């Protein structure tokens, strides 16, 4: 299978190349986002406005050949505005299903923490089970179904903290941050001049079809091997975080499963059919930090990210020779 993996890697490189030709970002940032999508996980961005999160989501959807819809979360948004509802059609004498924007492949939940918890909860079933229930009837969502959500930092006015159950359904939470240098910011300006418009996504060509992207997801799921020593490594990391005296609630088993899936995607992107500890370390902070609740008495002293990094350093790393 190693030779076949190499042939499919050309699609991954094409996806990354297409994204980077339009969007200026750190290579590791794009790699982590793509790893989440390849492992069928959702992504939560927490950043200040104006950093290109919406543009990135639209570009990604185009590049992987998937349908895209966007929901702007506001305080008056209702669950039916997301999942849809049934309306009475008088001339037909029956109800008709009006599907909401959730019926798509890539959903951008923009400023998700601007909406109240009741509306946020409308995403729970869709994100976990890839289905929605409308007036007692269940409707399956077409694969892939991926949520790319953005939220403003919680200290900003008019935001509602996401409930833990919803946070736990995101594979990774990350921040792109501001451009690292003047050169990077200049490159952003140059690309805007070249586009001659604010939104270039209409010009973005798919690097793979939707069916091709589903094939890549299948390869990550079925053909990337995870040795028992890596599974123990992941389990020890999760358990060490849970047992930290500063932690009120740690990563759930879903968090451990997600970390394993993400590690498999990272291994695939680096051209391997097996996971090594470096794959786990590459994505562990983004995979677990948002699943950690710090005790109130320690909240001002340490962040969830700090606890994850500290706990990972305490866990012995298995020898690479054991996983080959």
Compact overview of the structure:
This protein is of the alpha/beta class and 324 residues long. The protein is 45% helix and 16% strand. The protein folds into two domains: 1-223, P-loop containing nucleotide triphosphate hydrolases (Rossmann fold); 224-324, Magnesium chelatase subunit I, C-Terminal domain (Helicase, Ruva Protein, domain 3), CATH 1.10.8.80.
Explained architecture:
By secondary structure, this protein is α/β, with parallel strands linked by helices. It has two domains: 1-223, 3-Layer(aba) Sandwich (Rossmann fold); 224-324, Magnesium chelatase subunit I, C-Terminal domain (Helicase, Ruva Protein, domain 3, Orthogonal Bundle). It has helices at 2-22, 27-38, 53-63, 80-83, 117-120, 124-129, 164-167, 182-195, 210-223, 228-242, 253-269, 277-288, 304-314; strands at residues 42-46, 68-72, 84-89, 94-99, 106-110, 131-134, 137-140, 146-151, 170-174, 247-249, 293-294. Strand 6 and strand 7 (137-140) form a beta hairpin. Helix 1 packs across helix 3 (53-63), helix 2 (27-38) crosses helix 11 and helix 10 packs across helix 11 (253-269).
């Amino acid at each position: 299978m190693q030779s076949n993996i190499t042939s499919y890697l050309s699609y991954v490189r094409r996806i990354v190349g297409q994204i980077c030709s339009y969007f200026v970002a750190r290579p590791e940032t794009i790699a982590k986002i793509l790893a989440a999508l390849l492992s069928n996980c959702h992504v939560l961005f927490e950043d200040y406005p104006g950093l290109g999160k919406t543009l990135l989501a639209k570009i990604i959807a185009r590049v992987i050949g998937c349908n895209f819809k966007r929901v702007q979360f506001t305080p008056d948004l209702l669950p039916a505005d997301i999942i849809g509802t049934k309306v009475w059609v008088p001339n037909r004498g029956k109800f008709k299903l009006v599907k909401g924007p959730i019926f798509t492949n890539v959903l951008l939940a923009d400023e998700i923490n601007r909406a109240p918890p009741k509306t946020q909860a409308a995403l729970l079933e869709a994100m976990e089970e890839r289905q929605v229930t409308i007036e007692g009837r269940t409707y399956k969502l077409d694969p892939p179904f991926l949520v790319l959500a953005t939220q403003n930092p919680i200290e900003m006015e008019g935001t509602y903290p996401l409930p833990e159950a919803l946070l736990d359904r995101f594979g990774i939470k990350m921040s792109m941050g501001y451009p690292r240098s003047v050169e990077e910011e200049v490159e952003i300006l140059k690309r805007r001049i070249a586009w001659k418009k604010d939104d270039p996504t209409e010009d973005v060509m798919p690097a793979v079809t939707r069916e091709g992207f589903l094939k890549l997801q299948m390869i990550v799921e079925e053909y990337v091997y995870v040795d028992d020593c890596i599974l123990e490594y992941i389990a020890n990391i999760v358990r060490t975080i849970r047992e930290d005296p500063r932690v009120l609630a740690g990563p759930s088993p879903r968090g451990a499963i997600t970390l394993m899936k993400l590690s498999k995607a990272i291994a695939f992107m680096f051209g391997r059919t097996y996971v090594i500890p470096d794959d786990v370390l590459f994505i562990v902070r983004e995979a677990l930090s948002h699943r950690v609740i710090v005790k109130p008495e320690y909240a001002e002293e340490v962040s969830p990210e700090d606890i994850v990094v500290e706990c990972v350093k305490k866990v012995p790393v298995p020898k690479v020779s054991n996983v080959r």
